[in-house]
Amino acid sequence: MIRPEEIKMSADESGKWGMVIDQDICTGCQACVAACAMENNISFVGEKDSGYGRSMHWIRIERFWEGEYPEVKMTPNQPMLCQQCGSATCEPVCPAFATVHSQAEQLNLQVYNRCVGTRYCANNCPYQVRSFNWRDYERPEPLSNQLNPDVTVRRRGVMEKCTFCIQRIHKAQDKAKSEGREVLDGEFTTACAQACPANAITFGRVDDPESLVSQLAKKRGHGIKHLEELGTLPNVTYFKGG
Amino acid sequence: MADHKNHAGHAEEHFREKHLMLDPLPRGQMNDMVMESMHTTSWKFWVVFAILSAIVGYGLFYSWGTMIAEGLGIAGVNRPSYWGIFLVNTVFWIGISHAGTFISAILRVFKAEFRRPFTRAAELMTTFGLVQAGFSVFMHMGRVWLAYWLMPYANQRMLWPNLHSPLTWDLLAITTYLLSSTMYLFLPLIPDLAMARDRSTGWRKTFYKTLALGFRGTEGEWAHLRNAMNIFAFAIIPVMFSVHTIVSWDFAAATRPGWNSSIFGPYFVVGALHSGMGAVIMVLAVVRATMKHMKYFIRPEHFDAIAKLMLIISMAWAYFFFNDYMVQWYGGDKWTHQLLHFHEAGPLGWMWFAMLIFNIAIPWAVLWNQKWRSTPWIVFIVGFFINIGMWFERYIIVPISLSINRMPFTWRMYEPGVEIPLGIGTLAFFILLYMGASKLIPLIPVWEVEEGQMAHELKKFGRETVVSVSELE
């Protein structure tokens, strides 16, 4: 069992990259979903498969009805993506070590070419944010021309998930290294955060108290982490009703 | 005086009719009967064989090939039911394979005499059931052509399987079970293979000669064989328990409402025995009805004995089921609550009630009656219902329980696709293997029956006829 002080410590210190999502200003426009799909070469599964729960988006906007008809209220939009857990339930269950923890970035990585497709990780993810390549989805011309060369294209039978745009993290780190400096806060951001017209998504170093994510977290004060009671130590904080 | 004699004669006849062990035939005759049962093949056998081969060809190999080529999209698995009927069938077939070892090893260890004519029929179920379980679990993989990555093999990059994963434990446990149950099937087969070798010609002679490993039946050979069988009978029992416990850990070790239950281990073991015993009794009823001379070897007393075990196991299953549900419900977790409600009141609630009727109500209503449970077709039907009920149980645990999770946005029902021909294919392949084996190896362990008949004796004390059993080993 993980003690509360450990959760606090890890959120403040050991988690490196993190995200803050403000549900109050999210308009539910789905720009993040589209941007993520472009950036990460996510397959378009078509209407039929998508309606059957096989859409492969790494981020989705969740919305629920609250109350009984006719007193129905819509809940605030809730962008849901991999929470990059500090103690992830998807990791230990993979028999092939395809789901591993990155010590450097404190992210949950999916090694596509090691994945054999048992789908245990997806079952065991309490956030249900992993997507599986059910088929080899086609990218007819000219769609194939917009593939991002920095991101692997996945084939059928492989699990995939949000990486916090690790290719952008590495690009920024390489650039900073070549210029002999540290990565600056706000120098780059993830595709979803970049595309958000309302600035509802903020990405950055959660271990740096000066970074925008840390400042926002401090300012808003009462952020929540989803399913915190499971001890997964998520790195995404949500604000609602502030 | 004459009256007394008659009375004793009646009692003796009654005993003989009832018990195989008290109804000895000359050994040569019994050997010939078993040989004949292997050789006699009617046209009906070949018709069924051809139909099953077609089903296996289409359902198993063609459908699986298509799925490998096109991806799991043609199956019904989705988010959130990432595991579907594939895993249902895996657990189901491992369950079937359980009773084989249970009957054979446990009854051998406890020296239950009624086991003698059907140990082989049960052990064959273990091996062939595990083959189907293997098929089912490999089908389920997204990239099955890389399945060897789950094996600990030496490689340049020093990549090993993840020993933290219950799936790795599972693979190791099932492999151990497959190897040890095959050896356990083979050891008691050796004397029968030698018997068949001495009574065959042509390719059969070569076949039995190779498999019999030159067994001649000397005192020393018997001593070694008995030793080995004894070791295996004892050693395979914990292996059997561990296998289904570890299968249950695939579910119990996961962070999911409804799965995360500490009683899943024994609950799964008992569930496996429940479906497995049902399958054994079905196989025996079919063997008795269709194969020559089997009415001599497999008698109502055997159905009676197995049906009693079925009744007890049904009660044990009910106990574990109640325990699991009761404690999970009492725990009051909101997601578990949702899930348990979904089980009985959801769109597939009928399955939940059918499971309880098939697994508990039907066996309890029928098997208490000695006349009914000694009637092959009645216990065949009960066994059939138990197997349907246990399949439903696994269906409820896998795709139905996966439909409900902690992210209500993703809740969705599961609709099977190519899983259906694939599942039917494994069933057909199981029957096909069994039919093939019934023509190739002696289905009745003749030496074991002969040994039992030598040990049993009817003795007369005054007017009473009494059965006595001597220890031969």
Strand percent estimate of chain B: under 5%
Q: What's the order of the H and E elements of chain A?
A: HEHHEEEEEEHEEHHEHE
Instruction: Look at the helices and sheets of chain B and give the structural class.
Output: mainly alpha
For the largest sheet of chain A, list the strands in their spatial order: 10-1-11
Number of strands of chain A: 11
Tell me the radius of gyration of chain A.
18 Å
- Stated plainly, the CATH topology of chain B is called Formate dehydrogenase/DMSO reductase fold
What is the CATH C-level name of chain A? Alpha Beta
Compute the number of strand runs of chain B.
Answer: 2
Distance between the termini of chain B: 39 Å
User: Structural class per helix/strand content of chain A?
Assistant: alpha+beta
Q: Count of helices of chain A?
A: 7
Task: Please explain how this structure is put together.
- Chain A is of the alpha+beta class and about 240 residues long.
- Chain A has a single domain (about 5-240), classed as Alpha-Beta Plaits, CATH 3.30.70.
- Chain A contains 7 helices and 11 strands.
- Chain A is globular.
- Chain B has helices at about 1-20, 25-40, 45-70, 85-110, 120-140, 165-185, 190-200, 200-210, 220-250, 265-290, 295, 300-330, 335-345, 350-365, 370-375, 375-400, 420-440, 445-455, and strands spanning about 455-460, 465-470.
- Chain B contains 18 helices and 2 strands.
- Chain B has a two-stranded antiparallel ribbon.
- Chain B has about 475 residues and is mainly alpha-helical.
- Chain B is globular and about 75 Å long.
- The longest helix of chain B has about 35 residues, at about 220-250.
- The interface of A and B includes residues 62, 116, 127, 128 and 158 of A.
In short:
Chain A contains seven helices and eleven strands. By secondary structure, chain A is of the alpha+beta class. Chain A binds chain B through residues 49, 52-54, 60, 62, 64, 80, 89, 92-97, 114-120, 122-124, 126-128, 131-136, 156-159, 227, 230, and chain B through 70-73, 77-83, 140-144, 146-147, 149-150, 159-162, 164-168, 171, 250, 253-256, 402, 405-410, 412, 415.
